[in-house]
Amino acid sequence: MNASIAPGTTARRNRRWLVLSLAPVAAFFLVLSGFPVLNLLGLSVFNVEWSEGAASFSYVGLENYRRLFLQETIYWAGVRNTLVFAVGVVTCQMVLGFSMALAVNRAGTAGRTILTGIFLLPIVIPPIVIGTMWRLIMGREFGLANTVLRALGLNEVDWLGNPDIALASVMFVDIWHWTPFVFLLMLAGLESLDEEVLDAARMDVTGFWQEVRHIILPLMLPTIVITVLFRIILSFKVFDEVYLLTSGGPGTATEVINFSIYRTFFRQDQVGYGSAMSVVTLFAIAFMIIVARGLLARSKRAKDTE
Amino acid sequence: MTGRRIAGRVAANGVVWGYAALILLPTLWVLSNAFKYKIDIITGTTISPITWGNFEQLLFSRQSHFLRNLFNSAVVAVISSAIVIVIATMAAFTLGRLKVPGWLRWLILGWALLFQMLPTLTFVGSWYVMWSAVGLHGTYVSVILTHVVHNLPMGLFLMLSFMSALPHELFQAARMDGCSNGQMFWRVAFPLVRGGMIAATALIFIFSWSDFAIALTLASPATMTAPVAIATFAQEYDIRYGEMAAGTLLSIVPALVLILVGQRFIVRGLLAGAVK
Amino acid sequence: MEKTSCGFGAILVALAGALPANAKDQPDITMAINQSPWLNSFVAMVDRYETETGNVVNLDVTPFGGLLEKIRNSVRGAEGTYDLVNVNALWLSEIYSGGFLAPLGEIRAGYALQDGILTYGATTNWDPAVGSFSADGALMGVPVNGNVQVLYYNQTVYDDLGLSVPATWEELYSNARAIADATDMYGFVPRAARDSIVYNITPYIFGHDAAFFRVTGPGQAAIGLNTAEGLAALNAYLRMSGKDVAPPNPGAIAQGELIQLLSTGRAAQAIAVIAAWGALENPSESRVVGQMSAALIPAGPGGTHASSAGHWVAGIPRNVPADRQAAALAFLDWFQSQDVQVKYVEAGGVPVRGDLAATGLGANPAYRFLEAYSANAENAVMGLPFAAAAEASDAMALHFNRAVIGEESPETALNAAAEALAGVLERNGFAVIRQPDL
Lengths: 306, 276, 438
Description:
The complex is a heterotrimer.
Chain A: H1 7-43, E1 46-51, E2 54-59, H2 63-70, H3 74-106, H4 109-124, H5 127-137, H6 144-151, H7 166-191, H8 195-202, H9 208-219, H10 221-236, H11 240-245, H12 257-267, H13 271-304
Chain B: H1 2-32, H2 38-42, H3 53-60, H4 66-97, H5 102-117, H6 124-133, H7 140-164, H8 168-176, H9 181-192, H10 194-209, H11 213-218, H12 226-231, H13 241-263
Helix pairs in contact in B: 3-13, 4-7, 4-9, 4-10, 5-7, 7-10, 10-13
Chain C: H1 4-16, E1 29-34, H2 39-53, E2 57-62, H3 64-76, E3 84-88, H4 89-97, H5 104-107, E4 125-127, E5 132-133, E6 138-139, E7 141-145, E8 149-154, H6 155-161, H7 169-182, H8 197-207, E9 213-217, E10 220-223, H9 228-240, H10 255-263, E11 269-273, H11 277-280, E12 292-295, E13 307-308, E14 312-315, H12 322-335, H13 338-346, H14 370-378, E15 380-381, H15 389-405, H16 410-427, E16 431-433
Parallel strand pairs in C: 1-2, 1-3, 10-16, 13-15
Antiparallel strand pairs in C: 3-14, 4-5, 4-6, 7-14, 8-11, 8-12, 9-10
Helix pairs in contact in C: 2-13, 8-9, 15-16
């Protein structure tokens, strides 16, 4: 910290830093995501057909959206399922991930390494393997889950074939798969809490749970908020689990938004309609985030007035 | 009181190790499938004859280049996550702790969020067209750079959260000492968010390592990555569980090693004292 | 792929001065193909081609789930990456109608398929005026794998219970009841999961002399689904999915589970693609090696047999240079000969000729599926032969699946499916004649 450097130089250095730090991110977004996103948004008001080896774009205005809102059934079943799915899995992942992070945080060195290694396993397994492996485990006839149930004398359960529990089974696999994501971030957050601040605050509380509720959680709020945000967004984008476990069935029991988009955009090659679906989904997620933020702000205000 | 404490501890330990078992047992089962015949896998037998055939098929058959695919995955994942974490951390610091025009902050973060919320598979077609137009389709560069932009929003927001968690007083003090922005970053922020950086890098690495859609579209047979290779075993009407498990076994080893080595750096106490 | 040995050999022979039997006379070509159990047999044929002619075919092997996208990207670009694309029956109408492939008659004037090659419902030809497959249309590709449905049954169980191969759907059902009542096996496994139910209900529909729709002229279609025949077909399908013969929750059974149940001996009858034969005869994948047989899919009341076509056709894209197109056609031409097809079967592939049962293969018990395969291949149909087939299939699948689960009655399901199909047809430029509701 040289006090002898002229203020002008620092100002120039500061500006240079601003540019240097933001330019790469901006450049990547502009060059590599600009065209794809705008293309997608634009396609939603077109109908694309291929003939004689070339594409013809016909402007259809809001026709795709009209069709989506008035004639589509499968997509909206998917929206309902996805909302249930997102809320359910994010809640469970946050609770489980945070608990596991607490446990590792307080464990001895040996326990910590072992537990961290184990807890991280699900996300290093390729998603396609997780899907196919749980499909085997949950298979009605030969799956391990039912083998265990039968050994215990209980009735077998058709985890993926029974329309009433298929969605819960898919949610279970997703929770199994993605809790390590939350665990890792919560652990990093916990470990970065300043020990001195914690010690000072511990004077005022009377137990472990109090400590968690009144000290740790508030200190970790930014990390928690971002984790929840990303888990919500990523849950809305769930695809692999559904595709591999049930392909959206039986009926529409496990249909989800991303799967509808995949079918429409990819399999049926209806890029205009699929793009419209993506745009509508975008608004749905944005809406959910705004609602969540509102709830968070309201609870924060309530807490501040305590 | 003590009894309740002990009961509490036992219950807590039970939950923790129970959850660990819930993760470990299915994983071990799937990895053990790498050594079984398909009939034993689909009938769910636990004790069955051992075969190396799956590994043979995976590594030595005519159409498979699995070791090459693993290498490609490593190259792509390491380079792309390194790029992401570096540029995301710097940008997160600036956006989170410095005075930046409001519109700029909204534009960058808003665009990042928008991009993150749209489905990836709707973009791969555009990326194919873009990279083919500059003649880079099938090269490492196309896959790496696309992975960078794909994971950038998450990296940005994660580092933003860690940056936001730092105490305000630190930066005030540094400013009063006459630090420039760059100095504040390197001497104050960077050392304190190292733990968060490790966690974020681990996640970004995993996302890049497990990516399927981008690699499928942009890579050539020479640059194809492991998840696509493993996916070839999920065939039209026949899933080759054995080869898939063998591929998984081989591909989780490097990922897990990297992460376990990295998690050693997230230790308590490393960062305390830096406040002074 | 190993080209060095071939090139070296060619040089040696050329040096020897003799007329080289294996000298390359065509440029190298690249083919997009999927990983599958029959890939090895195809690779064996490619190797044979290289040994015999010196010409090289490079295979770019892709997961099945990504092949369509790769083909699309390549054929839509200015310059294609692939000189040959392996197109699944379900994608044929999209690729044909997009005009991406060069008709074989343009590459070699007057080219026609060799006698004896199966066309699986004229799917090798496309008529753009009608917008559908038609024997009058231009020849667009050559089949490379003849994956049609057959009726699988467990011969050992049949012998034990004194059953005979069913000729009608009623007989199939009574066989299934007999098996389910006498043993603890399932009498029949339907494949009724939503993503494949339309494919699997096709033989029932066409066997009962109904159809999803019929092309009655250029741009004109008549719905044939919600008719009395269609209802009979759906009821036959539902009967085969009933609790008394089929596994529980049939609405979730996909191909993987079906083959699992057959190969572990838990089920005795099923209608599935012939390509699953290899899995059933492989000791490391099956407990019923040597017990299974294949038969002609039963007929409806009118005596019509039908089988759903799930084969693969290789096409040559327009956006590659003419010399590579010619090389691709040379390979496809070589592939069709009876000699090569026999070797193909021996290597584990499904042939694209219908006349192999009469060759030496027919007597070999390992290939006892050939006769049933040929018979079913003759009856192969494409249920939705127009460009938006995938969209129509997905729209109808929901209702069929709901009928199987019991969420909709058969009449409601048929009416809803017919209406969905009509909507798709109209959106794609057809004038549609609907049936009155059931």
